[in-house]
From TrEMBL:
It holds the Pfam family Aldedh. The lineage of its organism: Bacteria, Thermotogati, Deinococcota, Deinococci, Thermales. GO terms for molecular function: methylmalonate-semialdehyde dehydrogenase (acylating, NAD) activity. Keywords: Oxidoreductase. Residues 14-72 form the Aldehyde dehydrogenase domain. One of its GO terms (biological process) is thymine catabolic process. It comes from the Bacteria. This is Methylmalonate-semialdehyde dehydrogenase (CoA acylating).
Length: 73
């Protein structure tokens, strides 16, 4: 099962997972976490802490990072 990435750390979730199916075959590809209120609140706090640094990052660097992230997907 996949985990949540919160504040730079991979976190287990306390709730059941949701299966993701291949629509062509019906095969289960992966299970994604169904985050609860606690995980969402923790993620929002981490995002708020990260925002000042991210907002000071030059636009071109942010664009490059997002394109690198896209390749990983």
């Amino acid at each position: 099962m996949l985990k949540n990435l919160i504040g730079g750390e991979w976190k287990e979730v306390s709730r059941p997972a949701l299966p993701v199916y291949n629509p062509a075959t019906g095969e289960v590809l992966e299970e994604v976490p169904l985050s609860g209120a606690e995980e969402v609140e923790e993620a929002v706090r981490a995002a708020a802490q990260a925002f000042p640094g991210w907002s000071r990052t030059p636009l071109l660097e942010r664009v490059r990072l997002m394109f690198r992230f896209k390749v990983l997907l």
